[in-house]
Amino acid sequence: MELKAGLSAIVTGGASGIGKALCLALAQKGIFVTVADLSEKGKEVAFLIEKENAKLPSELQVPSAIFVKCDVTNANDLAAAFKKHLEVYGGLDICINNAGIATPLVFHKDTTDGSGTWKRTINVNLTAVVDCTRIAIEIMRSRKMPGVIINMGSASGLYPMYADPIYSGTKGGVVLFTRALAPLKREGIRVNVLCPEFVQSEMAMMINRKVIDSVGGFLSMEEVVNGALELIKDESKAGACLWITKRRGMEYWPSKSEERKYLLNQYKSRRSQYTTSDIIVPDNFKKIIVHTLDHNFRSATRVVQTHLKLPIKPENALVKIIFAGVNASDVNFSSGRYFGGNNNETTARLPFDAGFEAVGIIAAVGDSVHRKVGTPVAFMTFGGYAEFSVIPAKHLLPVPRPDAEVVAMLTSGLTASIALEKAGQMEYGKAVLVTAAAGGTGQFAVQLAKLAGNKVVATCGGAEKASLLRSLGADRVIDYKKENIKDVLKKEYPKGIDIIYESVGGEMFNICLNALAVYGRFIVIGMISQYQGNNGWQPLKYPGLCEKLLAKSQTVAGFFLIHYAHLWQEHLDKLFDLYSTGKLKVAVDPKRFNGLDSVADAVEHLHSGKSFGKVVVCVDPQFSKTMAKL
Fold first, then answer.
1. 492 and 371: one domain?
2. Is 528 helix (H, G, I), strand (E, B) or coil?
3. What is the rounded distance in angstroms from the CA atom of residue 43 to the CA atom of residue 157?
């Protein structure tokens, strides 16, 4: 829903804390607000809004805000509050059920019948939310107009708060009650729940400060308001639970991988399916092998014809590959660096299959494989540069469609998503620097850091790349062909950068390390500038590194995606969910590479510095065209 002047909202518990902040934020957008609260302080909030909006056009014959004294546990009061809102504003677009209280006595130590303690907490926090939601739905249905309802949950509704089990239980009830109302989206009514952790308010003052400090301190009111506004504006969110913490920023709960455990049919319905008639399994197929160790990919590889052995072995599946991803480390793989050991041991492995990642569809399965032929899948094992590949079923990742954009989400997208979360321990409100930001993985790092509420600085080379990064939301783009990166960082970020996502290496590593802030975290995901050359990858020395880190309590963390395989499906689902709802853009390099004979060209294009976005190879262009029509 677009937040614009002329809409109207009712906010319960609007006299103070989060409720007050939400009333003011909505009013700033020109939205008429009813402040519903038991406290007379609600008059002050309405007066403040009226005062701030005194310059509104005079033809508006209604007040910017009104106050209605209302005990949300009293059915008559609730009915009167909504009735008054309709009388003044004529309709209802937004309802925020924010009123909530804590339990004054510890539940198991309460010797009363609970009428004035825990029973009232249940009535205010849960029963009243159900009642307000019911009334709001009735109004929105009667008007046959879109509407949004935000129920205020809490992080303690997602995990137990031992100090107040009643509060925790009521908020948990609000979460599941709200999520169960997702089908109302079909009627144009979206009900979502917001679950912030500790926010500085009168209620939070009752919590032991050590507990609050242990989770990173209080959330700002701005962070909570931004979460509520996101749930209102994002048309894709219905029955959604937005969890906000100081440690991790904003994220939706549960994750898609958790949700699939009990919503299997819903997940499957999102995926394309192809019939066996769409797939022809040949006797022979082409693939790329590494026949000699060389950092020059073209010299090290060749396309060969190989016989397809049928039937497929048990617990394996045959995948028809549609798109394969090109990676900077293809040259490290062709030189044998990924196998470790000495050169003789690596040479003994020759020839071996090339390519790290691909998407396609299952063409055949062996015994004990429960996946259907025609199902779209991705994989990240060796052998991606091939027309067909036999993959252990346990390594297959279900995907909605075998598209080029999905290939980009594999090595490149997963590296950004997992590295920022695990190695970078990314939080809200930090300065994040991404190098080679217009590349395959950089584009994801920029957007994910921005979505988490951070200020993003991105480096690139060239006006076209700079334009792409601005469209992805980067706050500051440094085009090294026009500006000196070192000078810009020193001048504009004197306190340093909190999180650095670095993939270039060499001199760029030194520049970034010197720009790292106190307590900063430096994520090394690669060093593409060192991969090629006459002598291949030559590791560099960084004298004084330990002293630099010690002086500023900094962390340099290496990240290698293969060590996080247990998180691949969870983060892939997260990325596709963001992409499918329009929150994440995926840039695929515009230069087209078709067929296996073009792979060497694609690898060289990536290393030329001229590529931007993810470089992919369409292994079977003819099938890709057929697939696009389905």
1. no
2. helix
3. 31
Asked if omega into 590 is within 30° of 0 (cis), the reply is no
Backbone φ and ψ of 11, nearest 5°: -125, 115
CB 345 within 8 A of CB 310: no
- CA–centroid distance for 581 within its chain: 11
Q: What is the pLDDT of residues 392-422, one digit of tens each?
A: 999 999 998 899 999 999 999 999 999 999 9
Give the CA-trace dihedral at 223, 229, 234, 237, to 10 degrees.
80
Judge contact between 19 and 37, C-beta under 8 A: yes
pLDDT digits (tens, 9 = 90+) for 359-390: 999 999 999 998 899 999 999 999 999 999 99
The 8-class DSSP code of residue 266 comes to: H
Same domain, 21 and 143: yes
Distances (CA, A) of 458 to 104, 463, 475: 49, 13, 8
**Residue range(s) defining the domain that contains residue 228:** 8-253
Residue 382 and residue 566: Cα distance in Å, rounded? 18
Residue 517, helix vs strand vs coil: strand
User: Which CATH number does the domain housing residue 434 bear?
Assistant: 3.40.50.720
* Angstrom distances, CA of residue 375 to CA of 274, 313, 403: 7, 18, 13
What predicted TM-score, i.e. pTM, was given to this entire model? Answer: 0.62
433 lies in the same domain as 295? no
Given a contact cutoff of 8 angstroms between Cβ atoms, the answer to whether 199 and 224 are in contact is yes
